[in-house]
Amino acid sequence: MDNRNFFERVYEVALLIPHGRVTSYGAIARYLGTARSARMVGWAMNKCHTPGKFIPAHRVVNRNGLLTGKLHFGNSTTMQQLLENEGAVIENDRIINFNQVFWDPSIEIG
DNA sequence: ATTCTGACAGCAA
DNA sequence: TTTGCTGCCAGAA
Question: In CATH terms, is domain A3-102 a member of 2.40.10.120?
């Protein structure tokens, strides 16, 4: 197993997130089999700045639907704007209709 | 090899 | 209910 395999898995799942949908780090981690490595998923997102591949990291939030990683988008409003542009309703850095736009890979895919 | 850190999640007070 | 601590996995120093 390559070390990059884990990151690639995370990226792959992130790319599978439909437009206007969001998921949580834990959900992705569960889908990958490592349910307790949700932190790794977030960290993989930190490395998603790799040029050449677009990772919709803005569609990945924590289990509370809170935009915890908005600070990593340069501007604190970028992540929110992207999500709102896709139909998500965000208020106070939190996705109001999180339950509606939530997309669980372990259910939708496998 | 050891230690620290991290865009989380779960449990305890 | 809100706040805080611990556990967990993987990578970097």
Answer: no
Strands A23-24 and A90-91: unpaired
Q: Tens digit of pLDDT for each residue in A86-107?
A: 999 999 999 999 999 999 999 9
The structure's pTM equals: 0.92
- The C1' atom of B4 and the CA atom of A15 lie apart, in whole Å, by 31
- The count of other CB atoms within 10 Å of the CB of residue A21 is 19
A39 touches strand C (CB under 7 A): yes
Residues 80-109 of A near strand B (Cβ < 7 Å)?
none
